[in-house]
Structure formats: structure tokens, C-alpha cells
């Protein structure tokens, strides 16, 4: 896997895969961070006199109706404004206009790659004929879409199987930023693990249990842990199918897994703090309690490396924000390496204005978690 500076892009037609999957509401882009982070790689290519065909997905496209609000046209305009450069938009994923777009334009954005999913999931299924077709449009492939590096789609893995390929500046930034929790970890290494469901994080938890010194669990994930050791969690969200697996992990890593000792519950309209041993049958857990916060702070204070994935409760509601916010406050007081990854974690950090506390915030979501587990990027095929 080559880096963009290790491959010849001068005067070449370059296919550039980006992650421009931004949130759009009422016809406006809510957050253009992903677009801005893509600009350094685009500028590098243009400065090397390359002609650039950009590809990206936007949301999930399953029906013809989905196309109506999943077009990248608005992204093309935003990118053009940010770069003060013409971005020619091709409103299709195939055809003569696309094939000749780089003849007269140096910067082109193709329509949403997932429009190809309507007929047989050709994009997400990495259809070979589609991969070959898209690869035929360029001479070099650069992937700078870290958020999709965990998916083998036609627009990344497929194209890279047929062209000289390399990764861009954003992916490089991610690899460097995540390195402190991949290689030569400074210890003690503590993971703050939260979020709604344990289902899609079991492999990550198992990997981190081997690598870390402590895992502090919260959110809906903690409910499954509490349930697995026999605590009543009332009507709280948990993952029944993983109870036995979590119980085994707790038995094997008893000294590493740190669970809540009290929780914030909502019973009808009443909100209170209860010991984990006394959660009412008709109550639901929404946050960690004061005693747990103080307990978790002790682990944070003695840690040299901290990785945050997920939140301690329903932080979107001010009534259940205390656990998440108080731990972020504590992080601001410790001199350790602090990294966060995963959509919920980064979203909460930005919403609560704690971004400056962290050494690195990964943009990858599921890609970040898979990279931590696999320790490699899986979206490049064989040249």
C-alpha cells in the first residue's frame, strides 16, 4: 500500500475516492468538515497537473426515490466554493459525458456511487464489471476516504485492483493519529467504552481487552455487562444474544473490565440514581451515577493512554449527560495521550465542546474500529 507521495501522479488522469458523505437538511449541508479535510489531497493532485475525477457515496440508496435527496450536486458546489476552483459535476455514474469529462475539465465530481446499488448492489457488492469500467476512466487511483476503508466496494477495493493505487493525506493523518493505540502503547492504557449496543463492538472489545489495562464500560453496552453477571436492569436496552459471550469475557478479564456501581434511571417520569443492585423492574438506565463517575475518574488519573469510543449515557438529553461530560472534564485535567473514535464519541465531544482536550479525533466511525481490530486497511485490492 503506497502513499500518495510515493506514486507518480504528474500529468495523469487520477480517480480520487473521497468520503463526502455529509449530512444535508433542508437542502443545506449541516457540517462541511469532511469536504474541507479532502482539500489537501485535491490540491496536491492539481499542483502536479493531474486531472481529477472524484468519486464518493452519499447515504444509502435503495430505490429510485432515494436518488431525489442523495445527489452530490450540492457537494460539488460546496467544494467549488471552498477551493475557489471550478468543480464540474456529472449527474450520472456511467456514460459518454462521464467518460469524456476529464478531456475538458481538470476537476470533476461524479454522481453518488451508490446510485449503482439500485440495480443489483453493484457498488456495495464490488461488481467486477463496474470496477473495471470505473478504473478505465483513469490512470492512477488515490483513496482518501478513510470512512469507507472497512468496506470492499467497487469504488475503492474494485478500482484499486486494476490501477496503480495509493492512499492520500487524510488516510495518512488517520494512521498517524491512531498509532498511539496501535503501536508502542504508553501504559496504563484505558478504554472508555460506551454507546447503545454491544452487537457491533464485540470484536473491538475482545481486541482491546487483550491490548488495554482497563476498560470502563457505560451506556447501553454496560447494560449487557450488568445483565450478564446477574443484575436486574429493568426495561433497559441490552443485547440478549451476547450475554453469554460477555459473561465469558468478564470471567477471563475480571481485573480489566470496570463496570458501573450506580446508574441514573428513569421510572415513569421520575429520574433518580440507584445502585446497580437496586434498579427497579419498571425502570430504564440512561446514564452512569455519581459514584461510578468518581470511580472512573480514578482510572483516568493514572492512565498514560486513553481511547474513547461511545458515550456513558443518552448525552443528547441534558438529564442524562452528566456521566459523559464529567469524564470529558476529567480528561482535560490529565496529561496523557487522548484519542477518540467512532461516530457517537466524536459527535458528543464536538457537541459538548471538548475537541481541544483530545490529541486526535478520528473521522472513521466503523472504519476506525475495524482498523484497531485488524491493524490494517482492507480496501485495497491487488494491482
What does the model show?
The protein is of the alpha/beta class and 383 residues long. Helix content is 34%, strand content 18%. The protein is built from 14 helices and 18 strands. A seven-stranded parallel β-sheet has the order 1-9-8-2-5-7-6, with helices on both faces. Helix 12 links the parallel strand 16 and strand 17. Helix 5 packs across helix 6, helix 9 crosses helix 10 and helix 11 runs parallel beside helix 12. It is elongated and about 70 Å long. The N and C termini lie close together (10 Å). The mean pLDDT is 95.
Key phrases:
single chain; 383 residues; alpha/beta; 7-stranded parallel sheet; 18 strands
Sequence-ordered SSE layout with sheet pairings:
Layout: E1 2-3, E2 13-17, E3 24-25, E4 28-29, H1 33-47, E5 51-55, H2 73-83, E6 88-90, H3 96-99, H4 101-104, E7 107-110, H5 128-135, E8 140-143, H6 154-160, E9 165-167, H7 169-178, E10 189-193, H8 202-211, E11 214-217, H9 219-228, H10 243-252, E12 257-258, E13 262-267, E14 270-275, E15 283-288, H11 290-301, E16 305-309, H12 322-331, E17 337-340, H13 343-351, E18 360-361, H14 366-374
Helix pairs in contact: 5-6, 8-14, 9-10, 11-12
Radius of gyration: 23 Å
Strand segment count:
18
| Residue share in helix | 25-40%
Strand content: 15-25%
Q: Strand order, biggest sheet? A: 1-9-8-2-5-7-6
The main sheet comes to: 7 strands, parallel
| pLDDT averaged residue by residue | 95
Give unreliable regions as ranges: none
Tally of helical runs:
14
Amino acid at each position: 500500500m503506497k502513499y500518495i507521495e510515493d506514486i507518480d501522479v504528474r500529468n495523469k488522469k487520477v480517480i480520487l475516492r473521497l468520503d463526502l458523505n455529509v449530512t444535508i437538511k433542508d437542502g443545506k449541508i449541516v457540517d462541511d468538515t469532511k469536504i474541507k479535510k479532502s482539500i489537501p489531497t485535491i490540491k496536491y493532485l492539481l499542483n502536479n497537473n493531474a486531472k481529477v475525477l472524484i468519486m464518493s457515496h452519499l447515504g444509502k440508496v435503495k430505490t429510485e426515490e432515494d436518488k431525489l435527496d442523495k445527489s452530490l450536486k450540492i457537494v460539488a458546489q460546496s467544494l467549488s466554493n471552498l477551493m475557489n476552483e471550478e468543480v464540474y459535476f456529472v449527474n450520472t455514474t456511467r456514460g459518454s459525458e462521464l467518460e469524456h469529462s476529464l478531456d475538458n475539465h481538470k476537476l470533476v465530481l461524479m454522481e453518488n456511487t451508490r446510485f449503482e446499488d439500485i440495480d443489483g448492489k453493484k457498488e456495495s457488492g464490488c461488481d467486477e464489471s463496474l470496477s473495471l469500467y470505473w478504473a478505465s476512466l483513469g490512470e492512477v487511483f488515490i483513496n482518501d476516504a478513510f470512512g469507507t476503508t472497512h468496506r470492499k466496494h467497487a469504488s475503492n477495493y474494485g478500482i484499486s485492483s486494476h490501477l496503480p493505487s495509493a492512499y492520500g493525506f487524510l488516510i495518512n493523518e488517520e494512521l498517524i493519529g491512531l498509532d498511539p493505540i496501535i503501536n508502542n502503547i504508553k501504559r496504563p492504557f484505558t478504554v472508555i467504552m460506551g454507546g447503545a449496543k454491544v452487537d457491533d463492538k464485540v470484536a473491538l472489545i475482545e481486541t482491546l481487552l487483550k491490548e488495554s489495562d482497563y476498560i470502563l464500560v457505560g451506556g447501553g453496552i454496560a447494560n449487557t455487562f450488568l445483565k450478564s453477571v446477574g443484575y436486574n436492569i429493568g426495561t433497559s436496552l441490552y443485547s440478549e444474544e451476547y450475554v453469554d459471550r460477555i459473561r465469558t469475557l468478564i470471567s477471563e478479564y475480571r481485573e480489566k473490565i470496570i463496570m458501573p456501581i450506580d446508574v441514573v434511571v428513569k421510572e415513569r417520569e421520575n429520574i433518580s440514581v440507584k445502585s446497580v443492585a437496586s434498579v427497579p423492574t419498571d425502570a430504564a438506565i440512561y446514564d452512569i451515577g455519581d459514584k461510578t463517575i468518581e470511580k472512573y475518574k480514578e482510572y483516568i488519573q493514572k492512565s498514560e493512554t486513553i481511547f474513547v469510543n461511545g458515550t456513558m449515557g443518552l448525552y443528547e438529553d441534558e438529564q442524562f449527560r452528566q456521566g459523559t461530560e464529567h469524564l470529558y472534564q476529567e480528561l482535560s485535567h490529565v496529561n496523557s495521550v487522548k484519542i477518540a473514535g467512532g461516530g457517537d464519541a466524536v459527535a458528543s465531544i464536538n457537541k459538548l465542546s471538548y475537541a481541544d482536550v483530545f490529541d486526535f479525533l478520528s473521522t472513521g466511525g466503523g472504519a476506525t474500529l475495524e482498523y484497531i481490530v485488524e491493524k490494517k486497511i482492507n480496501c485495497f485490492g491487488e494491482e
